[in-house]
Write a structure and sequence with these properties.
The protein has about 400 residues and is α/β, with parallel strands linked by helices. The chain has 2 domains: about 10-25 and about 295-400, Aspartate Aminotransferase, domain 1 (Alpha-Beta Complex); about 40-290, Type I PLP-dependent aspartate aminotransferase-like (Major domain) (Aspartate Aminotransferase, domain 2, 3-Layer(aba) Sandwich), CATH 3.40.640.10. The chain has helices at about 10-20, 35-45, 60-75, 90-100, 125-135, 150-155, 180-190, 200-205, 210, 235-240, 275-290, 295-315, 340-350, 360-365, 385-400; strands spanning about 25, 85-90, 110-115, 135-140, 160-170, 195, 215-220, 230-235, 255, 260-265, 320, 330-335, 350, 355, 370-375. The strands form 4 sheets. A 7-stranded mixed β-sheet has the order 2-8-7-6-5-3-4, with helices on both faces. It has a 4-stranded antiparallel β-sheet with strand order 11-12-15-14, covered by helices on one side. Bound molecules: 4'-deoxy-4'-aminopyridoxal-5'-phosphate.
């Protein structure tokens, strides 16, 4: 099947890589950017920059307006109740660190923080370190064979001592949607705070904060076909009010003395220092672009590509898939073949896939693996990318086995 992507031509970076002989299959790490995002970046930078929320001059007002317009677009895109619920950060990792510091005062020794075995380091280490600082127990929800969080075990492990649940929406290793509705209900039954890592999930299904009903949700612009250096933290009104300030400086305060200060409420109180102004403005363009896509067509294209990826991997002897990925990516291991050798031979043939622990080292250990190879798809990939990958894989395996 040809499986041509109707969006491919909008991505100059992808075409540049192709002209260099590179097949980009690493969009779960970071995505290429459409022309409209590059245009927005250049228009702002070339049009005269200014800092935001500080100056009364025209360029300052213009930059602030454009910056705040992205906040409104992000609130709409996430179906939040208002733009005050959106904090700009550097990315998902910073959003999660903000939460681990901002919620610290609410978590008492002896309580439990619940995560899952599938978490990316970004949604593990901030909680692990917080648990150590405050004398809490970190509870790790086990996975079923497919790679989903085991709901029976979750019902047993989430209990009256659970103060916070932090799980990913879509695993960057196992490619499965987690059963968030059930997990959030379990956590809420014990009045625990809820945090969703949407770094991968936001890319493949439009997030809806009102339907989801979590307290906090994080995602990164660079995976959403937007610029790097900016992420979103959504915090539901009442949850937002509980956050303690965590980084200090710049315009995040109301009043300061040498020995004391009063801070602004969210969102600005959580955006210390000069933010990534150009990236935030370009994120606005990325969100407009995402809004304009035919979601059903994107989902159908991604599903067809993913089906082809799985079928091709499953057809090859000795290839073992990690879990049962539902979309976007597949991680695999080849019997008798070292990941690093495979990575080397694939990259020599111009195949850009990711090999290693995928920032989920404890998960790899639990699966008994030193690492795995991950192929991940963007909406700009097409059937020819997969064909090139499989030709290269066959050649590499011929040499290695
Ligand atoms: N969570 C998941 C599931 C991820 O895949 C990633 C990025 N690989 C992150 C968190 C961290 O995102 P960032 O590097 O943009 O902070």
């Amino acid at each position: 099947m040809a499986l041509n992507s109707p969006w491919r031509a909008e991505f100059p970076g992808l075409l540049a890589l192709e002209a260099e002989g590179q097949t980009y299959l690493d969009s779960a790490a970071t995505a290429q950017k459409p022309q409209v995002v590059l245009d927005a970046l250049l228009a702002y930078l070339a049009g005269g920059v200014a800092n935001v929320h500080r100056a009364q001059h025209l360029p300052g007002e213009r930059a602030t307006r454009a910056f705040e317009a992205t906040r409104s677009k992000a609130a709409q895109w996430l179906n939040a109740l208002g733009s005050d619920e959106i904090v700009f950060t550097r990315g998902s990792t910073e959003s999660l660190n903000l939460l681990a510091y901002g919620l610290e005062h609410l978590l008492q020794p002896g309580g439990q923080i619940v995560i899952s075995a599938a978490e990316h380091h970004a949604n593990l280490l901030p909680w692990q370190q917080l648990a150590k600082r405050r004398g809490l127990e970190l509870v790790v929800l086990p996975l079923d064979a497919a790679g989903g969080i085991d709901l029976g075990e979750a019902a047993r492990l989430i209990g009256p001592r659970t103060r916070l649940l932090a799980v990913s929406q879509l695993s960057n290793v196992l490619g499965r949607w987690q059963p968030l509705t059930e997990l959030l209900a379990l956590a809420k039954a014990h009045s625990a705070l809820t945090v969703i890592d949407g770094a991968q999930g936001a890319v493949h299904a439009r997030p809806d904060m009102q339907a989801l009903g979590c307290d906090f949700y994080v995602c990164s612009a660079h995976k959403l076909y937007g610029p790097d250096g900016v992420g979103l933290l959504y915090a539901r009104g009442e949850a937002l009010a509980k956050l303690q300030h965590w980084q200090f400086g710049g315009e995040m305060l109301q009043d300061a003395d040498y020995h004391d200060a009063r801070f602004r409420p969210a969102p600005l109180g959580f955006e210390a220092g000069t933010p990534a102004v150009s990236a935030v403005i370009a994120l606005g363009a990325a969100l407009d672009w995402l809004n304009g896509l035919d979601q059903a067509a994107v989902a159908a294209h991604e599903a067809a590509l993913h089906g082809e990826l799985l079928a091709g991997l499953q057809a090859r002897a000795g290839v073992r898939l990690l879990g049962e990925p539902q979309l976007a990516l597949a991680c695999f291991q080849v019997e008798g073949v070292h990941n690093a050798d495979l990575a080397h031979l694939l990259s020599e043939q111009g195949i850009a896939v990711r090999t290693g622990h995928h920032c989920a080292m404890p998960l790899m250990k639990r699966l008994g693996l030193a690492g795995a190879t991950r192929v991940s798809l963007g909406l700009y990939n097409d059937g020819a990318d997969l064909q090139r990958f499989f030709v290269a894989l066959d050649k590499a395996l011929e040499l290695l086995r």
